[in-house]
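Support request, please re-run this one:
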Amino acid sequence: MMDKNYAAMTEQEIRDEIAILKEKSRKAEQLGIVNEFAVYERKALMAAAYLVDLDTIIPGEMYRINGAPGEFFMVDRLKGRFAWGHRLGSERYEEALPVSILEPMKVGK
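Re-run finished. Output below.
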């Protein structure tokens, strides 16, 4: 693994890092090491957040949550690589999600 943080990496370095993390995640899953699997999956999501153009995440808009079918997230604000807001229909207070798991509601063009 590289010693650079994601912000200092090039797009290709981030893509390579994600591939390494996904492979480690796959191996941990095969070995039944659930905690390690979860850590690598989260690290891959965070790395992927650095590939997202933050101008495409607009406060005040609703997004689908990748990996959570039927769940939607209203973005209130961005801070770093996280979107802060709340899930639609949730009693929860504000939460932060990595921008890499948000998908636009409008599909197509």
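The helical segments are 11-31, 34-49. Residues 22 and 101 are 15 Å apart (CA to CA).
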